[in-house]
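Re: the 415-residue chain
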Amino acid sequence: MKIVFATGDEALDDYVSKKDGILEVGRALYAEQLVTMVPSLKPDVVLFSETIPTSRFDQKAGHVGAEANILKIMESIVEEGIRVVMILNERPPGHPFLERLIGLGIYDLIIGDTIKVDQVIAALHHPGTRKQVKHLLRQEEELTSEDTYRAKEIKLVTTEEEKQEGSQRPISQRVFRIAKSMTDVSEKLRKKWEARGKENAPAPETTTMVQKSVVEVHKKEPEATPEKVIVLYSPEATGKTYVGVNTAIATAKRLRIPVLYKDCTTTCKTKLWFNAPTFPFTLSDIPLTVAGRDAKPSAKVGVLIVEAAKKDDIPPGAVVYVVVDSDYARQVIISKSLDGIQPAGLIWNMAYEETCHPQDMIPLLLALTLPYDREAYRDIADGIPRAFSDEALCDRLVKIIQMDPLHQYMRSGIG
């Protein structure tokens, strides 16, 4: 059995590696090493303990964010088809960390503040099953979940049974409420379409007429293609909003052309930067409009900046910059997501010069480096983006808009 050790306990590793049937093929000094070590060494098992430092810059266990980083590392190992035996501190059943691990298919969990070495050796030789760790899940919530109960009831009851049996009335009422809410939404949309399409006479509320009004509205207001379309892409939380919002402000301030910023993420955190309750909104002092995924640029928009966490949100022909930070595990995940994308370069946000350089993982031209900024999160809370007052930052961010994407791509060496 080939094993990679990642426990941070040299005595334990030495003891286990001498046992019969065990061949040590690697030993990690910190957890993030496993992301590259496991695919290259291809062990049968990874023996992992959360007492190991997460990265070479966090030389202690239990720092803030450790569980989230461990989950990402474990996910990368499981995707390689490698079994993981984990030594964990005591946690109560139903703890989110345990549930996520079990959800990844990691069933060899040795939990406790005091653990016998024999338990570790037994777990290495005898793979666990989901049944053995099922008690660690939130059993009571699984059994009493309203969503599960309702889905089961609706699936089993037919329309005829609903009419014949009085016992099915509650299900009928639930279905009616859902249908009613959908009707209300359709009615609001219909009124909105009628108001915008003044040339159309009032039409009956039918699916055919609603579709017709949509087509007529699209014909009347075609979507324009701005001169510049910039996408800030990352599937991870690497500070896309920080980079994007400040770039949009800098562009509107310096170039004095209308800018549309589209937040295509599910969280839509851009509103927090302006203390705005909803989308869309336009700033009064600079030509900047901030909107969500469904916004359509008008003919007046000169620059469209898109914040995207999914490939589907990248418009055709856009200039794509990949936003990374100094977290090695996130860099690995981002690098795996770039298939089918031709980025113009990297934007290294929250950069630590002593950490893993992103170009070592993602071979793209480094278009911009933004150093670590302790005040960034205070800016978010206050709703005051840095570019409003930081002219030096504006000078650097505007260069992203002014760069020649073809020249950038040729220099990057990506074919």
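The first strand starts at residue 2 and ends at 6.
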